[in-house]
Structures are given as structure tokens and as C-alpha cells.
Amino acid sequence: MMLKYSFKYISDFMADLVFPKQCVLCQKSLMNYSDTAVCLSCLKRPPEPKVVRDDRHAFDEAVGAAEYVGFVKDAMLKFKFKSVRYYAKAFAFLIDRASADRPYLKDALMCSVPLSKSRDREYNQTALIARELAAMWGSDFKEDLLRKCHEVSPLSKMKLPERKLHIKNAIDVNPVYDIYGKDILVIDDIYTSGSTADECAKTLKMHGASRVYILCACYGL
Ligand SMILES: [Zn+2]
Predict the structure, then answer these.
(1) How far is ligand 1, taken at its centre, from the CA of residue 33, in Å?
(2) Cα(53) to centroid of ligand 1, in Å?
(3) Can you give the pTM of this predicted structure?
(4) Could you say which of 91, 105, 134, 148 is the most buried, measured as most Cβ atoms within 10 Å of its Cβ?
(5) Ligand 1 midpoint to CA 2 (Å)
(6) 190-208: buried (b, 16+ CB within 10 Å) or exposed (e) per residue?
């Protein structure tokens, strides 16, 4: 057992030497093994979160941890498309910081926005962030609570009205779970128009969820 951990430590250490880990917020190289991928100076000044709470949305509250610009955007793109998986911890850490004054989120049943099967990606990056966050908080995380019911084209290429039409009825609740009367926390990577968050919230509430909260690593315009 100890030997296994030693090998893991050595292989992490070697990987850090060859591909030094970078701070998710300022891209400074982190030569020392950093669990959070956030450097000490950025730890002292975490980014300003965005909070969305109004009647136009189906969810009760959405929080985005860091603005989707500059280094944060670079890190998210590397995380999503270049398999830089250690950023999952960094984004989970940013979400944790952004929701520090919302203890009720830790009691909610956690799930993540599902990845479309047609996307050319080897893993669901949102689920990776959620898994890290659930481990930090000791939350109940059900990766398959929300499912895609038909394939959707990448939303980023669409204008807003087209996006809304496309995402409608694209997400369903897995019938093996009874969510009646439960508070649900949905983890997503980027909050932009809120259409994905709304679709998740509408579907969850249709299945009896009490309150639906959305936590995103990034927020854009
Ligand atoms: Zn930094």
C-alpha cells in the first residue's frame, strides 16, 4: 500500500518537473506540488464571484466563481480540451471559496451538467470538478442524476434565441433517483446566458425538487 503511494508521489513529482503545474489564476509555475493549483499570492486575493438571483430564472440562485477571461479562460480551455486534469481541483477550490458564506449548499444533493455523447472528449470535465468539490464538502454526488436525452450541437456556436430553443428538453432526470422535496446543487463549468442552468432547474423542479442551486467555475457574458 505504502509502496503504491510512494510511486504515485514520485510520478506526480516527475510530471511536475517535466510539465510544471501552473496557477489557475496567474499562470505562475508551481514547482512545489500544489494540491489546489492556486499560488500563494492568488490565495490571498481570490476572484470576485458573480451571483444571479432573480425571478426570470428557474433556479433559485447561481454563483460563478471567476470571470471567464485571461488566464482563467486559458486554464478552462486547457482543462476541457487538452486533458489538463489537475485543474479540476483548482476550479473546485475556486467554487468552494466563492460559496463560503452559503453553508446550505453543502447539504444539497449534488449533480453535474451531463456531457453530450457526441462531443469529442474523453471525460466530462464538469463531473471532475463536482467530484473534487463533493470530496471536499463530504456531499452526496450523483454523476448520473441528470442525463442528456438527445444530442445537442455545441452551444458556443449559437446565438442566444437559438441556444434557448436548442437546450429546451435536452436534459432529463434519471428515474432511479427520487428527488421529491430535495434541494439540488448543479455544478457546471461556465455560466453565460443561464439557459443550461434554467433547463436543469426546470427539469429538476418538474420532478419535485424543492430548491435548485447552480455553482459554476467560471462566468462569462
Ligand atoms: Zn497565482
Answers:
(1) 14
(2) 29
(3) 0.83
(4) 91
(5) 32
(6) bbbebbbbbbbbbbbbebe
